[in-house]
Amino acid sequence: MCVNDHEAHQNVAPLAEEQLHTLTRRGALRAATVAAAAGAVGAVGGLAAGAGPASAASHGGGGRPGRVPRDQISVQLYTLRDQLAADLPGTLRALADIGYTRVEHAGFVGRTAAQFKAALDAVGLRATSGHVGIPQPFDAAAWQAALADARLLRQRYIVHPFFGVGANGVIRDSATYRAFARDLNKAGALAKKAGLRFGYHNHHFEFFRLDGGTTTGYDIITQETDPDLVHLEVDLFWVTRGANDPVDVIRANRGRIKQFHVKDMNDAGSFEDAGQGLINFARIFQHGKEAGIDEFIIERDDAGTPPRQPAQAIDTARVGYNYLANLRF
After folding, report:
1. Is the pLDDT score of 59 beyond 90?
2. Which has the higher per-residue pLDDT, 33 or 307?
3. Which of 229, 223, 139, 233 is nearest to 191 (CA)?
4. Taking the CB of residue 176, how many other CB atoms lie within 10 A of it?
């Protein structure tokens, strides 16, 4: 999801050959040529779901396969921004009819928090999470107002959606990230006092190396924020686009990842509906307990944006819900 990075999402360039090779070396992406030669779609993070060792591992040596609880399936409403703006009640009703009970908001679509909550209540939906950027520079009073709205909506989580790009492009200095990490801790402390869990949502910018060294922005965010104050909402597409294996991210942050953004990748490195692309979600979800996961949030950043039609975002939401509800791992 984005608040300040609309252009970054809408203009995702195809992966360069060097990036494809990097992802392949990391075990994060099979090259399209390999998939074609095998007569099957490749999978990020290992074998395709249901194939070979991944399928065997999903049964835990003969136990019952894992599954995503339906009441933990959510959708990031940024996916449906055009439809929500045109018809808020009808779009929310369509999500409820698909089976969703949770959503993650990306603002209130021109309504007050109370009006937005009323629209959700009318169709039996609850915004358990919401994307709200912390003020920069940090302003405690402004953040308290955002927390008050989150409490009114009965949210469990409030998540900062975007960091990593400044006035001069992608941020590549550690000092900026360290200052931001301090602000994340401040925001998390106030959220905790308000009875909310505060999280950070990644893109791929955080995985650039800083200061010409080996440390990344994500290293600083995860190491210099308090796990008790800042949890991680891991966007599986952007982790992969950053040439990282999501399972490695889980293992490095055990118990701290409360939310997944479930967003698939096509063979050009851009967006795809969940279960229709290259990312091996089954393999990743096998580590859900290790992660500490509570929500599986469907998202597609370009849904409804030309050349796609706005109504196709509802299809994305439906495909994603059905994929998660029926996935076994």
Report:
1. no
2. 307
3. 229
4. 16
* Cα–Cα dist 107/85, whole Å: 11
Cβ–Cβ < 8 Å for 88, 118: no
SS3 125: coil
Question: Taking 50 as the threshold, does the pLDDT of residue 204 lie above it?
Answer: yes
Report how far Cα 254 is from the mean position of its chain's Cα atoms.
17
Give the three-state DSSP class for 106. coil
Q: What's the rounded Cα separation, in Å, for the pair 168 and 148?
A: 34
Helix axis angle, 113-123 relative to 140-152, nearest 10°?
20
d(CA 302, CA 9): 7
Host H or E run for residue 237: helix 236-241
- The residue type at 205: F
Give the pLDDT score at 263.
98
Q: Does the pLDDT of residue 98 top 60, yes or no?
A: yes
What is the C-alpha to C-alpha distance for residues 218 and 191, in angstroms, rounded to an integer?
21
Q: Is 126 exposed, middle or buried (0-12, 13-18, 19+ CB in 10 A)?
A: middle
Give pTM, 2 decimals. 0.86
State the CB neighbour count (10 A cutoff) for residue 228.
Answer: 12
C-alpha count within 13 angstroms, C-beta hemisphere, residue 84: 21
In single-letter form, the type of residue at position 133 comes to G
